[in-house]
Each structure stands twice: as C-alpha cells, then as structure tokens.
Amino acid sequence: MNIDEMQAGREMDALIAEKVMGLILDSDNPFMANIVVFEANTGENTGHTQNLPHYSTEMAAAWEVWEWLKTQYHEINFTWCKGVCYLTIFEHGNCILGADAETFPLAICRSALKALGVQA
User: Fold this and answer.
1) How high is the pLDDT of residue 24?
2) Which of 29, 53, 93, 106 is the most exposed place for a label (fewest CB within 10 A)?
3) Residue 69: what pLDDT?
4) In a domain, 42, yes or no
C-alpha cells in the first residue's frame, strides 16, 4: 500500500510511533498495546509504558509529529482547500515532498512517513 492511500488508524499510529517518534511497540499487540518509554540520553528502558497515541486522528498527538517535522525541515507549507488539507515540504525553495488528506493529522502523518521513505 502506498502511504498516500493509507488511512488514519492504529496501523498508521504504530508506524509513526516506531519510525518517526522512535518508540518501541509492545510485540504482543503493537496496534493497541502500550509502547515502552526509553530514556532519551542513554537509550535505557525507563520501565514506563504509555498508551499508543492516536497520531493520525487526534490533533494533540499529531502536533508532536508536526514538531518533529519542523526539526527536520524549516520550510513547511499547510493549506486547506475544498475539504482537503495539503502539506508541502520545501528545501531551498524547491518542493521535495507533499501529502494531502481529509484531515490535518492524517496529512502530517503521511508527510512524516514519506519524509523518512517508509513504505506501508
């Protein structure tokens, strides 16, 4: 499946958690289970878990992905036209990738996965 065709949901949330946010999914149930939290500086398991955020459907969680995108790319354009959200990433004035979706969280997630070259 193409990232541009991937729908919002727990499968996308799991991909974002693992590939973009660097979180480790519970191997017993990666789509619904907790994620393991590692200490940022040492990479050691903190012994804490948290629920898998709804990156692709909830704006508060998607905002974390947006913040990650901003650390990678300084030129990001967001437009909304006729019920479609367009997110475009530029480098030195040139468009390098873009994604569209019916919601802002989904457009953010698609853009982040495409930026990393993730294949669904």
Assistant:
1) 74
2) 93
3) 92
4) yes
Q: How many domains does the chain have?
A: 1
Q: Let me know if residue 46 belongs to a domain.
A: yes
Residue closest to 7 by CA, chosen among 98, 103, 79:
103
CATH number at residue 63: 3.30.2120.10
Residue numbers in the chain where pLDDT is lower than 50: none
Give the model's pLDDT for residue 93: 85
> Is 25 within a domain?
yes
Instruction: List own/partner pairs for 2-6 with CB under 8 A and 24 or more apart.
Output: 2/120, 3/99, 3/110, 3/113, 3/114, 3/118, 3/119, 3/120, 4/99, 4/100, 4/110, 4/114, 5/120, 6/110, 6/113, 6/120
Q: Check residue 1 and report its DSSP letter.
A: -
Where does 5-103 have alpha helices with state H? 10-15, 59-72
Q: Quote the domain boundaries for residue 73.
A: 3-115
Q: Is residue 120 part of a domain?
A: no
Find, among 80, 78, 71, the residue nearest to 98 by Cα. 78
pLDDT value of residue 22:
83
Q: Is 15 helix (H, G, I), strand (E, B) or coil?
A: helix
